[in-house]
Design goal:
The structure holds two protein chains of two kinds. Helices cover 20% and strands 31% of the residues of chain A. Chain A is α+β, with helices and mostly antiparallel strands. In chain A, helix 1 crosses helix 2. The chains are: A alpha+beta, B alpha/beta. Chains A and B meet through helix 2 of A and helix 6 of B.
Chain lengths: 137, 315
């Protein structure tokens, strides 16, 4: 199942050139970019692994693309996302976040139904690959 | 058909070929380059070989652009450089200019200069160097990375030195991200030569080896005048004579650092000038007084008092 989340979730995947343009846009506004990856793309998993520290002090998108390439090479089968932080408001604010890498075969989700007290129904979104996931939960 | 319509035909032809904006672009580019080279000539005294090389590089980039518009192959050239020369010969100044030039020619996207030395690149312990070097390279992307005294990166006497690791990472990025950054190594000529002997890979990836010659006494005098004028001072005719003597003496002394020594000498002359003005009494200071450096300021230097070649390195 093609997973979507973040800023451009309604669009097809961005090409490298488009990613570069987005990064350039973010840098122009003084946002810092951070690269994160995970093998557990469950929507409730907000803790993705960080690929190094957020990339501060760079002027050109090439620097981010270099790190992104290294991250993709190291974790080709993982989801990778870029996030841009706007610190101008004095707090960490995600201004932009989108997926830049996905595994060749994406895991499926199942919606499971469970009985609960008083004939209540509880639902659980189960990620098939989560059984094998090793990333942060 | 109205007659003025005829005049438009060539333009429409251009439009049809979609080449008007590009045509305009390299016209203005031409002007930009010319202006910049003229400024370089005016603001940098001497440095003939350096200016020639900069002119060549600028020309190549302009022509490459025109070639690309004509659909000809124009592989982006490798512009990594090595500046060799004694201290104070203008290596850093030229590097700053180079960044500006490359930017206005569209070779470098941001045109900023990141100046580093060994300490910024090489780490203290295992695994520390690679991220540190990569950080610096990332900061310089889109601009120019200037590595001062680059030979300190390589210490053959210590085989566990992490400098080699930094060099290897740099080489890789210099090769793969050629369009993203320009690396300039700088240092003394003889030491740089030894550095390249130990690192043939680095030597072969640097296309431009530019040697910065020492300045002649006359050039130093011109530089001094330029520096003085830039700070809204002026030398009285006698002071100029004194300065010429000073330069001749200072050049013969050890630790002479070309333009840097001159700048320091002028800095001290300013101090003495200020002290003299304040100790003067009787009449109010005029604009002229505030601007003019007199020979006293220069003759008071220790260089003038000492016998020639007598020793200490003080200016």
């Amino acid at each position: 199942m093609r997973l979507t989340q973040g800023t451009f979730s309604f669009l097809p995947d961005l090409s490298d050139e488009q990613i570069r343009a987005q990064v350039e846009y973010a840098l122009e506004r003084g946002w810092s970019i951070s690269i994160e990856y995970t093998d557990d793309p469950h929507p409730r998993n907000v803790y993705w692994n960080m690929w190094g520290t957020p990339i501060f002090d760079v002027k050109d998108a090439a620097a981010v693309m270099l790190e992104l390439e290294r991250c993709r090479k190291a974790f080709p089968g993982n989801y990778v996302r870029l996030s841009a932080y706007d610190r101008s408001k004095g707090r960490q604010t995600t201004a932009l976040s989108f997926i830049v890498n996905r595994p060749a075969e994406e895991p499926d989700f199942t919606l499971e139904r469970t009985d609960f007290t008083d004939r209540q129904m509880k639902y659980r979104l189960r990620l098939h690959a989560a059984d094998h996931a090793t990333g942060a939960q | 058909m109205p007659p003025e319509h005829n005049n438009r035909v060539p333009i429409e032809e251009h439009l049809a070929h979609n080449s008007v904006p590009q045509g305009e672009q390299h016209l203005t580019l031409d002007v930009v380059v010319r202006e910049m080279l003229a400024r370089l000539d005016a603001e940098l005294i001497g440095l003939k070989p350096v200016k020639t090389r900069i002119r060549e590089i600028a020309s190549l980039l302009v022509i490459d652009r025109m070639r690309r518009e004509q659909g000809l192959v124009a592989e982006s050239p490798s512009l990594h450089m090595c500046f060799t020369g004694n201290p104070g010969t203008g290596k850093t100044t030229v590097a700053t200019r180079m960044a500006e030039i490359l930017r206005s020619l569209g070779y470098s996207r941001k045109g900023h200069l990141v100046t580093v030395t060994r300490d910024d690149l090489v780490g203290q312990y295992v695994g520390h160097t690679a991220p540190k070097t990569r950080d610096v390279l990332k900061r310089a992307m889109g601009g120019v990375l200037f590595i001062d005294e680059a030979y300190y990166l390589y210490r053959p006497e210590n085989e566990r030195d992490y400098g080699q690791e930094a060099i290897e990472i740099m080489l890789q990025v210099m090769e793969n991200n050629r369009d993203d950054l320009v690396v300039i190594l700088a240092g003394y000529k003889d030491r740089m030569d030894r550095f390249f002997e130990g690192n043939p890979g680095m030597k072969s990836r640097i296309t431009h080896h530019i040697d910065f010659p020492d300045y002649s006494a006359q050039e130093l005098m011109e530089i001094a005048k330029l520096m003085v004028a830039r700070q809204d001072y002026r030398l009285s005719p006698q002071a100029e004579e004194a300065l010429a003597q000073y330069i001749a003496r200072r050049m013969a002394q050890p630790n002479f650092a070309n333009a840097r020594s001159i700048r320091n000498a002028l800095e001290r002359a300013r101090l003495r000038h200020a002290a003299r003005l304040l100790s003067m009494s009787g009449r109010p200071l005029t604009r002229e007084d505030l601007m003019t450096l007199e020979p006293d300021e220069i003759m008071a230097s220790r260089v003038m008092a000492e016998e020639q070649g007598a020793g200490s390195s003080h200016d």
